[in-house]
Amino acid sequence: MLTLDLTNAPRWHELSPGVRVQMRPLTTALMVATRSDPAVEAVPEDASDEERAVAFAKALARRAVLAWDGIGDADGKPIEPSPEAIDALLDVWPIFEAFQLTYVSKGLLLEQEKNASAPSPNGPSAGATDTAKPARKPARTARRG
Known about the structure:
A 3-stranded antiparallel beta sheet has the order 1-2-3. It has one domain (11-114). The protein is an alpha+beta fold. It has 5 helices and 3 strands, in the order E-E-H-H-H-E-H-H.
């Protein structure tokens, strides 16, 4: 059953011990807006999938992040979220991975579920038929010499 959260309230996500970020829910409007973000559209056509993923994640985070705790400047003073600070935060590999896992992938879980194949009734290969036939080994003949 699909459960709808009709409040659309922002939620806190822990990205690492002591670092949490309050974000908007991952909605269709947010995803559509991110896809047409100038930074995403500016990614060259020959860019790698990884470069595209980073550009998209940063654009999404700039739209989604509302507040955070446990993030400071070089002197350890707490700072507020800004586009530059959000980009710098996602440049930290473990934070990027946590953002992808706790926010993006959970939001896309429904999309992944609808694209999955239904399992066969009696196991993953019960309905499959064997189309491969074992190769015949050539007969060995002994040479007499």
